[in-house]
Predict the 3D structure of the following.
Amino acid sequence: MPSGKFYRSLPYLYGAINIAEMVITFPALIFVIINLSSSTQRNYVTSGISTSTPITTTTIFPPVLLERFNAANGLIASSIIVSVLVTTCCCMACPCHLIGCFVKGYRRPCLRFMSLNCNCPCYIPRPKLRFKVRLAFHTISIILRSIGVILYGTVVGESSRHTTFQFEHAILIVFAVITLLPFLAIAFDIYHYRVWWAYKPIVTANPSVTRKSLSPKHKRFIPYVLIEKFRTAALGNRKCKNGYQCRERTLEHIVVFHSADFRPQPRWTPDYPIYIGFHRTNADSAISIAHSDMRISDIPPQMLGYGIYFARSIESTEQKARKDGAYICAEVRMGKVLMITRPELWQVSDSNAWWADYDTIYFKHEKEERDEFCVKSSDQVLRWVIYVEPAMDLKLKLYGMDEEFSDTACNCI
């Protein structure tokens, strides 16, 4: 697994790829056009009713081959131009990249510009969108370059100018090499995407735990810097526009786009066989859960009896949990539910007697936002996402992820 230093160097590696493309491609195109067009070819034309007479032109190929040659040059050049225009987006208009080499506060936009890696607000909470856009761009670039190389190859193969045959082959190899460079950029994009969307925090958990495979119920860890508190007023990086009326049940959406006190569903009724709950624990326990399963709480006092406890919002867990450092957002199958109020708590407290007749105890609190529920089995927890707080997760700072999307000095990109 590459280290944090490798991740921090990605902007420089992207920049090196793109600078190499520019340095190799454009001089090669100019050299080809100037050098090959300096030779002459004897053509014959017919003027009116006169007999054909030879004239000298600067055309090095027959018309058909010349068209292919021009098309090849155009496709290869356009693929480089598209690189600049598409991937830098609005960043092209920002003056920050011009002074980034001299002023530390502007270094980040300078690197983004050099690496052709735009930091539009819509990408910040959406690592998958960023990856898809860049993958689509690279695919188009590879297609353009491949067609250009094929056209140029046919020109080389059919050209009758054997005196420069070795030169033409050398240029063909150069163009073929720059066609391969986007594949290297794609490899970096895949790595960048996996760091964010297949995230694995670095915590001081027992190594024997982390060596185990992840539970099939575990969807993913979400980096702390992606959660709702980092949403801003910037277009594309705002909180969910539907607010408390949102009916999106994707666990990632709930964690990334909604506030800590958001309750994804109304107070439980039989209309909700699958309910979303929030569980708080320490970082080590969260890592252990990710590699195994959620565990029954059976050490008194347990207000709702023995089982696995959930609150209706992240904020509510802070008032109930005995541990902190990590949060779990989970889909829970409720099964047969016993809804109780405070005067009835004595029936279930510090006991598992209710397991025989019910799957879940739902506590209807006087204040609805403080409702909580307890399930008797981990089999009822269907899937989850987890995020660990920065103080417990060493990876954020080690990889520079805690400041990767920080506003630049001019607040533009």
